[in-house]
Design brief:
93 residues, alpha/beta, 3-stranded parallel β-sheet, two-stranded antiparallel ribbon, 3 helices, 5 strands, 27% strand, globular
Length: 93
């Protein structure tokens, strides 16, 4: 799963769903320009950079950050950036 772009299989009831996984946010947003939600599963070590990058794309309107232990200063900066760009943000935990 860490060897480049690939698909992950999920089950919804009796239906199988293949969800694409990309190595870069840029590629994902380029291939799916109608996406407006970004859920960030990165660790607290890299969540600031990846969330800031995600908010640089105008189509992203909602950001969910799963990481715990994000430094307070970085959290404040993410909140400030989200407010300035009109992005709704949930998290970090």
């Amino acid at each position: 799963p860490f060897s480049g772009n690939h698909y992950v299989k999920f089950y919804w009831g009796t239906e199988e769903i293949l969800m694409p996984v990309y190595t870069t946010t840029k590629e994902a947003v380029t291939k799916h320009s109608n996406v407006s939600v970004f859920i960030n599963f990165a660790s607290f070590r890299s969540v600031y950079e990846t969330s800031t990058e995600a908010m640089s794309y105008p189509s992203i309107k909602t950001l969910g950050i799963i990481a715990e232990g994000v430094p307070e200063q970085q959290t404040r900066e993410l909140i400030k950036t989200a407010e300035a760009k009109g992005v709704g943000m949930v998290g970090p935990a």
